[in-house]
Specification:
Layout lengths: L2 H25 L6 E7 L3 E6 L6 E6 L7 H16 L7 E2 L8 E5 L3 E9 L11 H21 L10 E2 L1 H5 L16 H21 L6 E4 L8 E4 L2 E4 L6 E4 L2 H5 L10 H12 L7 H5 L1 H18 L4 H25 L1
Parallel strand pairs: 7-11
Antiparallel strand pairs: 1-2, 2-3, 3-6, 4-6, 5-6, 8-11, 9-10
Helix pairs in contact: 3-7, 5-9, 5-10, 9-10
Protein name: Homoserine kinase type II protein
InterPro entries: Aminoglycoside_PTrfase, Kinase-like_dom_sf, Pseudomonas-type_ThrB
Organism: Herbaspirillum seropedicae (strain SmR1)
Length: 333
């Protein structure tokens, strides 16, 4: 990132920070609440702190023209419903007018949607001990899927879909995987063959209601906060309509190429079976969903090249994607 782009980025974040501050009175928050950047990706998230009381919250300023108000409200409604069902999620805070989602406009940042959440205490699970974490992710996935199948969605419900075309198609939501850096012609050919095999297998697997529905779509260790016996699921921005087994694959996001991936997927299945049912056909299709997720993340890497995460993956990760595709073709073709 050049000096010019760095300055432009900092100016952009500062404009969103001022927008966040301008929203504080609508919640009745005192003027001394501090607003500090917590993260910036699809959306920009700020931490709110009251230095006098220790009170904290999280304010999310949504990316412009990405999700509609109905789609964001549907996300908030599902998070509330999950929490009511005993599945811990960050809870939306309401304004003085009783709204959980508001539109704010400033001269510098334009119009944005804003949602604010109660602060959640906790730490991320230990990435050095993956098997128990994968088992926990399986348990949580099964409980969420059971609730999502039963949940009566509001009349205005709207979320995007995560079909094969949405994830790895030429017009995928996260761009084109073939635009990723370091790909050579041979690797592109292997990935194209893997995508074609995925298409055939997923068409056979089907999209019946027991296989395809409302999912988190990014349920991985980085989106869990653990404090004592309580595990809270965070970051529902990608939630939408897709294959339930997509949540299995997202549990291994960015590490799909690990040599112990089969063991980790089976630990996820072990956890899932505590609260949900998996058929042998489901388990046999795990490699397809894992490959789909990896190709989706390759597209994400190409379209988010300015982010630290994308830059940290590097050439070896891209090569590992092609190697995973080769193994997938050998195993499932």
């Amino acid at each position: 990132m050049t000096l010019a782009t760095t300055e432009s980025h900092l100016s952009y974040i500062a404009a969103l920070q001022e927008m966040a501050r301008s929203a504080l009175p609508r919640y009745g928050f005192p003027s001394n609440v501090q607003v500090a950047l917590l993260s910036h990706s699809e959306n920009t998230v700020f931490r709110l702190d009251n230095p006098n009381t220790g009170w904290r919250a999280v304010m999310r300023v949504h990316r412009a023209n990405y999700q509609t108000p109905n789609a964001i409200q549907s996300e908030l409604d599902w998070m509330t419903a999950l929490n009511d069902a005993g599945i811990a999620t960050p809870q939306p805070l309401r304004t003085l007018d009783g709204e959980s989602l508001i539109q704010v406009e400033t001269a510098a940042a334009g119009k944005r949607m804003i949602a604010t959440f109660a602060w959640v205490e906790g730490d991320f699970p230990d990435e050095g001990n993956l098997p128990p974490s994968l088992q926990k992710l399986g348990e949580l996935s099964a409980r969420m899927h059971r609730q999502s199948r039963q949940w009566q969605r509001p009349s205005y419900f709207e979320r995007h879909t995560w079909s094969l075309d949405d994830t790895v198609g030429e017009n995928g939501r996260w761009g084109r995987w073939r635009d990723a850096p370091w790909l050579d012609r041979e690797q592109v050919n292997v990935l194209e063959r893997a995508r074609d095999l995925m298409s055939l297998r997923l068409a056979s697997f089907g999209m019946s209601p027991d296989k395809y529905g409302l999912i988190h779509a990014d349920l991985r260790i980085a989106n869990l906060l653990v404090k004592g016996p309580r595990t809270t699921i965070i970051d529902f921005d990608d939630c939408g309509i897709g294959w339930f087994l997509h949540d299995m694959a997202t549990a291994l996001s960015f590490i799909e190429h690990r040599p112990d991936r089969r063991e980790l997927m089976l630990r996820w299945a072990e956890g899932y079976s505590r609260y949900g049912a998996l058929t042998q056909a489901d388990i046999e299709e795990f490699p397809t969903f894992l490959m789909q997720r990896r190709l989706q993340l390759l597209a994400w890497m190409a379209s988010h090249s300015e982010t630290e995460l994308a830059q940290s993956l590097g050439e070896s990760w891209v090569a590992g994607t092609a190697e995973l595709a080769t193994d997938y073709l050998h195993q499932m073709g």
